């Protein structure tokens, strides 16, 4: 069988499984539709969170990005895992105890305000929308690269699959397909990683060979020789203050992402919420501790196979010519000596240009793995993109159909109407996501900074204060959220004005040295300060709200002893 | 916050206090293995070798994530114990029908 035929077979099989599960878990009521009837076991929820969380970007691009950033790649590694500690310790158990459907549910009820509810719902929509566009694009890209299908058709196929199990099965269908999608994507990343690890260091466990062998040291020395930055030294690609702020912003932002938070409503109990955060991070850490190893191995392997190699020999490698065709790898013998040279000096001497995406995508071929592994990586990329997309679509649908339609505009709507609106909204969300997948806005990469910045500056502080500060009131929360949001949006728009407004240069370069990706930290701090000051100068929240806060903090305890 | 009036029983207040103390300690560890060891002390720690890589690099790309895992599971286990100690009645809120 050719690689294409194998890939096609594997993709069709996995898609049939997703459809089957979606059909099996069709739901008839809103509780099942929005929060899977609160019946998801902790381990399954952990796997679903992990699949929800790890997007096409985590799967395809992250290891490559890290291999180019070296030490500073830690912003993604710590930033996208550290948030789970905040979730597990500060948010998840209490939100589960609160026990409703959405994030705006909590904000609206806790701050006894439909204005706060509407702001939270709009923030949820915006955050999820910026995120989902990239996922649908990811589906199209995987299809076009592996199966030579047009990107548009790839996006349409992805839309059809997601629409099927999400509209029919709601959160329940999404959760169980995500469990399968997690298994596909983790196998797809572990097998090539173990193989390349074994080949380069003699140890098949990538995490161990990264720490205990000298491969990272060798890469670092090699990079210095070639005039690139020292791989193992901190702050060679970003300043220390930026590494700090971006890491923290991604951590706080993670803990404030609605599609992740709502997953904790789906488990049976508070206890299960605490454990599912642990399982989630365990499943995520499997990929996140392997990614930096893949980054080192693949980059070392690429440099040593291409540097100082006669160009004819390099082009005779099957993978090299294939990736050259896609434009992700460029070999250009500038000085005409017939030999390729890697160099940190971009314009003058460097003759090999690598797109970070091929670090993961090319690993199976560079490491000479069987075609089935290449097919697996394609199926894994699709699983990562589809699972994240479906979680985001549900978050968008519930923000509109539950928070805006039911809680604000039509509180008298009955179960049947609510379920119908939920289904229509998720279908609409699929169409919107697909539209952005086919016509990506020019600043897709940039808007991810928006998603994390907004979650960090608006939702995270409001939820945290709602639980841990009983005195926090409506006025404080609304002023806090507005300040955090306004500051973050304005700052990112000014720093990314080239992409957002089309100016020639950014209107401001940075905020006291902090760049757009890290600005959410300042937004969050402003939110906390403003909320605290305003709340202490206005009336305390009503008695029943204070009781509610106490009720979500501690369980019922029997008094007899 | 100590002086706030509360409808919680003595035991519930104790439970909350123990919970928040544990959270604070774990968050200090969370920050020290990531923000401190991986970023603030990155330069001095990069001169200390940890097997094949500098210590700060190990924390930044492996150790912090492993510690995060330990923190979450430790907290889940400790809270299970605390629940048992206080004979907590697990409340499953399902006020809107839903589960069959």
From TrEMBL, chain A:
Localization: Membrane
Coiled coil spans: none
Membrane topology of this protein: Multi-pass membrane protein
TM ranges: 6-23, 43-69, 75-95, 115-134, 146-167, 179-198, 240-265, 277-298, 372-400, 421-438, 444-465, 477-494, 514-534
Main location: membrane
Classification via PROSITE patterns: NA_SOLUT_SYMP_3 (PS50283)
UniProt protein name: Cation/acetate symporter
UniProtKB/TrEMBL annotation, chain B:
UniProt cross-references to InterPro entries, sorted A to Z: Na_symporter_ssu
Domain Sodium symporter small subunit: 12-88
Membrane-spanning ranges: 21-43, 55-77
A Pfam family assignment: DUF4212
Keywords, ordered alphabetically: Membrane, Transmembrane, Transmembrane helix
Protein name: Putative solute:sodium symporter small subunit
């Amino acid at each position: 069988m050719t690689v294409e035929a194998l890939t096609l077979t594997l993709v069709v099989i996995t898609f049939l499984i997703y459809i089957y599960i979606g059909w099996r878990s069709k739901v008839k009521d809103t509780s099942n539709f929005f929060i899977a009837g609160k019946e998801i076991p902790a381990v399954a929820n952990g796997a679903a969170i992990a699949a929800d969380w790890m997007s096409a970007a985590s799967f395809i691009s992250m290891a490559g990005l890290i291999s180019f950033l070296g030490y500073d790649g830690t912003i993604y590694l710590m930033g996208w895992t550290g948030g789970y500690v905040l979730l597990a310790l500060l948010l998840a158990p209490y939100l589960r105890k609160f026990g409703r459907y959405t994030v705006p549910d909590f904000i609206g009820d806790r701050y006894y305000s439909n204005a706060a509810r509407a702001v939270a719902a709009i923030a949820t929509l915006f955050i999820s929308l910026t995120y989902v566009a990239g996922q649908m694009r990811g589906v199209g890209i995987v299809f076009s690269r592996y199966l030579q299908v047009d990107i548009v058709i790839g996006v349409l196929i992805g839309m059809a699959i997601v629409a099927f199990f999400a509209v029919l099965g709601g959160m329940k269908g999404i959760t169980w397909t995500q469990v399968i999608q997690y298994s596909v994507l983790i196998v797809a990343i572990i097998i090539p990683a173990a193989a390349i690890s074994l080949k380069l260091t003699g140890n098949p466990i990538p995490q161990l060979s990264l720490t205990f062998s000298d491969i990272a040291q060798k890469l670092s020395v090699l990079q210095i020789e070639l005039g690139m930055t020292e791989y193992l030294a901190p702050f060679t690609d970003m300043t220390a203050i930026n590494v700090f702020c971006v890491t923290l912003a991604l951590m706080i932002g993670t803990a404030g992402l609605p599609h992740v938070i709502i997953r904790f409503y789906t488990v049976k109990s508070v206890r299960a919420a605490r454990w599912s955060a642990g399982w989630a991070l365990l499943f995520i850490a499997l990929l996140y501790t392997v990614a930096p190893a893949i980054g080192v191995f693949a980059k070392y392997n690429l440099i040593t196979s291409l540097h100082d190699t006669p160009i004819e020999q390099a082009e005779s490698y099957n993978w090299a010519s294939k990736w050259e065709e896609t434009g992700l790898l460029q070999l250009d013998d500038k000085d005409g000596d017939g030999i390729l040279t890697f160099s940190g000096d971009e314009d003058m001497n460097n003759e090999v240009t690598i797109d970070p995406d091929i670090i993961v995508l090319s690993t199976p071929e560079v490491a000479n793995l069987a075609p089935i592994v290449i097919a697996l990586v394609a199926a894994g990329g699709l699983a990562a993109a589809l699972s994240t997309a479906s979680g985001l679509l549900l978050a968008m649908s519930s923000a509109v159909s539950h928070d805006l339609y039911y809680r604000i505009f039509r509180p008298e709507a009955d179960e049947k109407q609510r379920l119908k609106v939920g289904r229509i909204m998720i279908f609409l969300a699929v169409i919107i996501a697909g539209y952005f997948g086919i016509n990506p806005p020019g600043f897709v990469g940039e808007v991810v900074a928006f998603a994390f910045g907004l979650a960090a500056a608006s939702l995270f502080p409001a939820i945290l204060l709602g639980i841990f500060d009983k005195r926090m009131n409506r006025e404080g929360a609304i002023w806090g959220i507005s300040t955090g949001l306004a500051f973050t949006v304005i700052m990112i728009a000014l720093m990314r004005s080239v992409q957002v407004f089309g100016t020639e240069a950014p209107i401001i370069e940075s905020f006291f040295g902090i760049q757009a990706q890290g600005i959410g930290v300042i937004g969050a701090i402003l939110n906390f300060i403003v909320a605290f000051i305003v709340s202490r100068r206005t009336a305390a929240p009503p008695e029943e709200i204070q009781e509610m806060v106490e009720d979500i903090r501690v369980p019922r305890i029997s008094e007899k002893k | 916050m100590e002086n706030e009036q509360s409808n919680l029983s003595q035991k519930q207040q104790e439970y909350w206090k123990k919970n928040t103390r544990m959270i604070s300690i774990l968050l200090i560890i969370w920050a020290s293995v990531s923000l401190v060891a991986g970023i603030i002390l990155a330069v001095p720690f990069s001169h200390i070798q940890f097997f094949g890589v500098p210590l700060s690099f190990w924390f930044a790309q492996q150790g912090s994530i492993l510690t995060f895992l330990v923190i979450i599971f430790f907290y889940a286990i400790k809270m299970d114990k605390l629940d048992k100690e206080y004979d907590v009645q697990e409340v499953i809120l399902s006020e809107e029908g839903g589960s069959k």
